[in-house]
Amino acid sequence: MEDFRFQNSTDIRFGKHHIDEELHDAVAQFGQNVLLTYGGGSIKKSGLYDRVMKALAGLHVVELSGIAPNPKIDSIREGQKLAKDHDIDVVLSVGGGSVLDASKVIASAKFYDGDAWDLVADRGSQSRANIDQLPVVDILTLSATGSEMNAGSVISNPELNVKLGTYGPKTPAVSFLDPQLTYSVSKWQTAAGSFDIFSHLTEQYFDRSTANDVTAGIIEGMMRSVIKWAPIAIKEPDNYDARANLMWGATMALNGIARSGNANGWTVHPIEHELSAYYDITHGVGLGILTPRWMKRALSAETEGKFVRFGREVWHLTGDNDHEIAEKAIQATYDWIKSLDIPMTLGGVDINTDEKFVEMAQEAVRIGHLDQGGGYVNLTVDDIVALYQASSTVEGFE
Ligand code: NZQ
Ligand code: ZN
């Protein structure tokens, strides 16, 4: 087990009965000037917008709408201007991970006078970790990213074909998690969100640390839960237990608990972020396509033990032949992803050319330090090009 520090101060209000009663005070404790952020309109369609406005009565509310999936830097720039012009005290984010990720960076941008993209791109002295951040309150409407209890944001700059993670000094101050708000999430987004949760777990499970049994066991339990409840939520969108387990699973998968004691090298996320940066595809779907191919590449004599444990503890596989268990675990992962109706090739998300594979692989290696111990097993540019190619066909899986 590696040394670690774990601290998380987000105030979680989970369940059916918090929002209408508690939202006003949860926001007003930070001030009167509120920047309300949301996406493309799902919150108006569901009636949540009206509930929020009612709860905020008496406060000075400024709105920023239209934050897109894979949130773009232009929304942050717009939010930065509003936050400064209206002397905003608190950001209220209502939506999925994209709205929340953008809101967190806007919360930092209030205290920055330059171009907001610096806050995403700069890893040095201007890094967001060194700049103040407004409190963020959120109402989550999609279970996936864990953004509701972590300090990360992932922001895209379409002009540069870049999608980058950035970390602020604070996790959200208060997160309202009502699983009922996710009943209206489409099957596609439910599948994508569920696989995003699963991917956060695999990224932290296949880890170079040793003897980290507590974390591995916690992750296995969460994996079994996502495997069980995702298909139910897809079939029965208003199944409360399914939506509740996915919501809490998403939060717990990426709030720091599942990384405690890890070496923490993520691999598939940097490789997927390039797909989203170049082709603006749904993050969880990209992960679903890439992950089984990556697992095949990562399996070796050295890593077999972890894959065997994954097979026995997560997929309930039995038998004496370890190598067979490891391979069956990867196939079981593929079959489960496919059962969620995630298209299992890049062609399924309209990526029908390999013209950007080398460029994307170079960026993934650079950003994720994937050839220098940045991931679970080292990968070169050629390895990643091969992964993109393997993701273009179902060969080896069907
Ligand atoms: O924009 P609206 O109209 O709200 O519609 C959204 C959007 O079109 C819709 N939606 C959300 N809640 C809904 C709903 N539709 C009906 N009913 C509801 N209740 O769903 C669409 C996708 O929303 P989005 O917020 O993009 O999804 P998600 O939560 O999966 O967020 C994905 C983004 O998070 C980043 C991803 O890269 C991607 O940009 N990530 C953030 C992480 C973090 N902060 O820690 C980690 C992740 O690995 C991930 O990279
Ligand atoms: Zn993710």
From TrEMBL:
GO CC annotation: cytosol
What stretch or stretches form a coiled coil here? none
Q: Which organism is it from?
A: Weissella paramesenteroides ATCC 33313
Checking InterPro entries in the record gives:
ADH_Fe/GldA, ADH_Fe_C, ADH_Fe_CS, BDH-like
Q: Name one Pfam family in it.
A: ADH_Fe_C
**According to the UniProt record, what class of enzyme is this?**
oxidoreductase
Q: Which UniProt keywords apply?
A: Oxidoreductase
Domain Alcohol dehydrogenase iron-type/glycerol dehydrogenase GldA: from-to ranges: 10-179
Name of the gene: adh3
Q: What GO MF terms are annotated?
A: alcohol dehydrogenase (NADP+) activity; butanol dehydrogenase (NAD+) activity; metal ion binding; methylglyoxal reductase (NADPH) (acetol producing) activity
Q: What is its EC number?
A: 1.1.1.1
Alphabetical list of CDD domains matching this protein = BDH (cd08187)
Q: Which Gene3D superfamilies does the UniProt record give?
A: 3.40.50.1970, Dehydroquinate synthase-like - alpha domain
The Fe-containing alcohol dehydrogenase-like C-terminal domain covers: 190-391
User: So which domain of life are we looking at?
Assistant: Bacteria
Q: Does the keyword Mitochondrion apply?
A: no
- Classification via PROSITE patterns: ADH_IRON_2
Q: What is this protein called?
A: Alcohol dehydrogenase, iron-dependent
User: Any keyword Disulfide bond?
Assistant: no
